[in-house]
Design a protein that fits this description.
The protein is of the alpha+beta class and about 425 residues long. The protein contains 25 helices and 9 strands. Bound molecules: adenosine-5'-triphosphate and magnesium ion (MG).
Length: about 425
């Protein structure tokens, strides 16, 4: 990390407290804190929101921690969702319209004897808070800020790691990484989204917890992978993913050199997680079953994204780079799907002459039945063919002609061609 990168970061806990005290917390969050405080529950902002505030980055979700139990939180606020009661988490909805904010309030994890009905002493509160922070995943995520007292709590060196750009487990790394397999994914994802490096002991602990990673639900792995691939430079998370041995547990083990080339290539692609995933799997294009195994067994992309990755990783797309014949280019683009063309060209790292050759071949040309100058309705009105499979076959045959010669995409020419095709079919004895 260069000097200019951390120039805006607080250099001490005092500076951090001042910065956070000046931070513009949403009024609704302050109100939630006040309500909890008035009911006798001290409350702090924790996790990613504190981290991102210190970094001067926008953060989407607000995590509060307090001694209040989920039941108490639900009694205090009219609009709540029991998002994770078993983990002590309740979502509170506050404000309306543009000021609507949701916040997740979690009961301090793993503390005993704190909630005995009396307003607790500061010392007991701090003990419960430190207990909670000790159970969080990484030091940069284990800082807390009390928005009412303006006290900043950082007992695990989070600020130092934030300044150094390091993702480090809280406490003993191997125990923490084996406790929860998702943490390995979160570690490399945070490396990518923050542009940080992985602390060496934490990396070693990940390598020792790959069997635990295997047990994490694919949906949760997918969520982290999507965040990682959406980062400005995914390689910051992909290199540690490779070095720790996670690669084969999240994707698949293929030839090291092509993995390295793929990692370098994704940073240059548009920030589109699906396209970037396709680029990572591109080296396996000769074995599509391997790609399907990743998409169906390791990750859990949406149906649409799955199809897009499969289309983008078809080996035949490569022909786009070398084919000169405009009709052949149009056939390839039609087979791929025009909406995927720009992603495919980015994945193939097509140069400007190639791009203009392809654009030239496709400009104004119909590549799908919907883009043709006539449709089933015209064939029906002209009594050329009744609805049914014959009509579908006829439209496909016309599309082939139009892709071959775009100027044939004109109403009268197409109707004539349709009549000719029907007559041909009749004389060849196959009928309609
Ligand atoms: P972002 O919101 O940018 O995805 P985040 O760090 O805020 O990142 P959340 O999922 O919102 O992630 O989690 C909020 C906080 O909860 C984290 O900052 C961390 O302190 C804690 N946390 C989340 N997941 C885990 C986990 N698997 N193990 C331990 N602590 C966790
Ligand atoms: Mg968060």
């Amino acid at each position: 990390m260069t000097l200019s990168d951390d120039a805006g970061l607080p250099r001490s806990a005092n500076e951090a407290a001042t910065l956070l005290a000046d931070a513009a917390l949403p009024a609704a969050i302050l109100e939630v804190a006040q309500t909890l405080h008035a009911a006798g529950h001290e409350v702090v902002l924790v996790g990613g929101a504190v981290r991102d505030f210190l970094l001067g980055r926008a953060h989407g979700d607000w995590d509060l921690a307090s001694a209040a139990t989920p039941e108490e939180v639900m009694r205090l606020f009219p609009r709540t969702i029991p998002t994770g009661i078993e983990h002590g988490t309740v979502t509170v909805i506050c404000g309306r319209g543009r000021d609507r904010v949701t916040t997740e309030i979690t009961t301090f994890r793993g503390e005993g004897g704190y909630t005995d009905g009396r307003r607790p002493s500061e010392v007991r509160f701090l003990r419960a808070l430190v207990d909670d922070l000790a159970r969080r995943d990484f030091t940069v995520n284990a800082m807390a800020f009390n928005p009412l007292t303006k006290v900043f709590t950082d007992v695990f060196g989070g600020l130092e790691d934030l300044r150094a750009g390091v993702i480090r487990a809280v406490g003993e790394p191997s125990a923490r990484l084996r406790e929860d397999g998702l943490r390995a994914m979160r570690a490399v994802r945070l490396c990518a989204t923050l542009g940080y490096r992985l602390d060496a002991a934490t990396a070693a602990a990940i390598s020792g917890a790959l069997d635990i990673l295997d047990r994490v639900s694919r949906e949760r792995v997918q969520v982290e992978m999507t965040k990682l691939l959406g980062a400005p430079r995914p390689s910051r998370g992909l290199w540690p993913m490779l070095e720790t041995g996670m690669w084969g547990h999240v994707l698949a083990d293929y030839e090291r050199g092509s993995i390295e080339a793929a990692i370098e290539a994704v940073d240059r692609l548009p920030a589109n997680a699906t396209l970037r995933l396709a680029r990572l799997l591109w080296p396996m294009r000769a074995a599509p079953a391997g790609i399907e195994a990743v998409l169906d067994g390791r990750l859990r992309p949406s149906r649409d994204d799955r199809l897009r990755v499969l289309a983008l990783t078809r080996a035949r797309n490569e022909a786009l780079l070398t084919v000169d014949d405009p009709a052949r280019i149009r056939r390839e683009v039609a087979a791929l799907g025009r909406d995927l063309l720009s992603d495919a060209l980015a994945l193939l790292d097509a140069d400007p002459p190639t791009r203009s050759r392809i654009e030239g071949a496709c400009a104004g040309a119909a590549l799908t039945a919907a883009e043709m100058a006539i449709g089933g309705r015209d064939l029906l009105a002209e009594k050329i063919v009744p609805p049914g499979p014959a009509m579908g076959r006829l439209l496909s045959a016309l599309l082939v002609q139009v892709i071959e010669a775009p100027r044939r995409n004109e109403r009268e020419a197409l109707l004539a061609a349709a009549r000719a095709l029907v007559a041909e079919e009749l004389t060849s004895g196959r009928g309609g």
